[in-house]
Amino acid sequence: MTMPIPTANAAFLIDEAGIITAWNKACEQLLGFPAREAIGQSFGSLLVGIDPGDMTVRWRGLAEDHGHTNRVVLRHADGTTVKADLAILPQAGLDGVDRAWVAAIDNVHNDAMPDAVLVGRMPLATIIDVLPGTFYALNREGRFLLWNRNHERMTEYSSEEMGATNALELFDLPTRPLIAESIRRVFEEGEEVTIEADVVARSGRETPMLLCGARVDCDGGRYLFGMGMDITARREQERALRLRERALHAASNGIVITGIDGGNCPIEYVNPAFERITGYSAIEVVGRDSRFMAAPGMDNNERQQVREAIAARRPVNVVFRNMRKDGELFWNDLSITPVQGEHGETTHFIGVIMDVTATKQRTAHLEHEVNHDPLTGLANRNLMWDRLEQALHLSQRQKSMVGIVLIDLNNFKNINDSFGHEAGDVVLKVVARRLQASVREIDTVARLSGDEFVLVLVNQPTLRFTLRMIERLRQSLTQPVSFMHKEIAVGASLGVAVYPHDGITAPDLVRSADVAMYHAKATGRNEIYFFSNDMKSSSEARARLDSGMSHAIERSELFMLYQPCIDAKSGRVSCFEALLRWRHPEHGVLLPSSFLSEAEENGRIVEFGAWVLDQACAFLHDLKQLGITDVPVTVNVTAREYGQQDFVSGIASRLKAWELAPDLLQIELREETVIRNPGQVRDLAAQLRQLGLTLSIDEFGQGMTDLGFLRELSVGQLKLAKEAVRAIADGPEGEGGTMARTLIDIGHNLRMPVIGEAVETRAQLDFLTAHGCEVLQGLLLSEPVLPEAARNLVRDRMPA
User: Which residue spans traverse the membrane (predicted)?
Assistant: First the structure.
């Protein structure tokens, strides 16, 4: 097929019936039909694929779309076809009625025409409406000459309004100078301009647009052709990115982003907090491997965890030490998280650095306070037991001996009475220093209570070696202590037990050393006694004590006292503590400290404990009869008691028998019991909680209970260790109150009420009240009283 040669201005005339009435030369050249053959023919005969009977409908449809171009297929005289654009324009007569139509043929092509030619011949008006953004053409004055539908939708102007609109009117006043200058540069300097500006629609809606324009010369005139893209989504993304960047910069924790380069992780970004924490600027660290701050030889296990996590592309959290730029070590709580790319592969790591140096130091300080005696700085009872257990485990492996030395100062009460408690404190501090100076660093010196000390001497090669060490120690204790220009004589009785000869377990060894110290003290001189089996077998006093306990209940020698606990705010009795007493036929009234340890050892504590629970329930029932149902009673129990299989079920039976609410009875455990039997205590706490009873912890602060464990037990209240309260001797500002204040803060952080017991002075009362202790107990407030007196206290509801 040969493509016909297009002729300019090919047009013909059609009447109302669609009959061709005029045919110009260009039509003859284009379609091959001379005028004589074309005139008089139906217009539809020129259209391919149209039934002659439908010609009128077809041409009418084209005519009604007057002013617009229609794509048609025309018939050529040689039998071929011609594709062209056809525009039909009406021609009105003198009466204004359309009598004829001019059909103009343009953009002639056929199937053999190349795509580039076809596309090149497409009229601009047919293209601009399919563009994704706005399209417009301006003259030098900024008037719109051409635009697409997207431009109308975005500006909300109609076609008529847009033709009368100047481009500057689409922008707010501050932006118009920028737009005007851009238009000037396009026309006068021929620049291609790209700017971002907010286009203001007719309704006032603002749309951020990326606008570009260039000059086009056409038929001697110059015009600005431009396009615009809505960048609202991009602006939101940029805003979100800026927000994230500001968040990274404002974060108080250090943030570091690293790439992955083989086995290395080069730093790509650090925030200002990282610079502040480490001392390194971003310029100094970007590009370096992230491990350059590692402290050599420290925390190798944690660093291995990091290496393994990075190799496995998984998150990790460790705490280790790093070095600041100035060489100072700091504790770094580091969390590392992998970042995945578009295809799921790990491309980066984000590390969050938290400087926990201060927290570590506070924790270490707190641990020292919890594990050490506040007066002397020596290990306390809890730490001593821990060190002794460690020493025994080590001795078992090394087949060596461990020495336990119990030391009791002679006539210490006389020192306090004669020279005052300040002098007594000075003596205790001096003795502590002397004891530490007499042993090795691997040994432990502890203060048990009052004037009692204990030494744990590890890895003793021979008894002779142990004896020489203890003799040096005894000699140092015989030296007087200077106080206020006075010499205070000091002496001590020492009891010694050696593992494995005198006991296999830690309690056995301490008990043996205690027996030996008792015999040394009985001499009245500064003696050293090594434990022997003869001491134990000849303990007649202990045997008589055991014999007397076996008949104490049946002879009605036991009786109960109740010491009130006073609400610090209201001054009312908030609860009672049940206290056991033994009216011994020979020795008079004995306190629990005189016989309960022996009862615990021989098992009679179970019988005594059951009797105490019965008495406490009877007392609570009496209170209930008086109409008092909000004052509970606390009963202290030992490990041997709650270790009985029927302990909790026995409590349940008693509550039911006495018709008591569970929350009226509180079970109290000493902190050292909790530490030694955590699994058993956990089970007990769960059973008591199920029954509805409250668990109380006595002597809190004497040991070092895991605080999370206390929370797990749902402890109802904490009783401060008596030592902590007694240390409050110098008023609220004295350093003696540090331990009490610390323990109260710990209790409140655990959201547990704190009871200050053993309150004996006004200074102690004021200190504990000022630091938020909720409940107070002690001789200053009330001595333990008989049941009838206790009932009167709450019956009258008078402040104690």
Answer: none
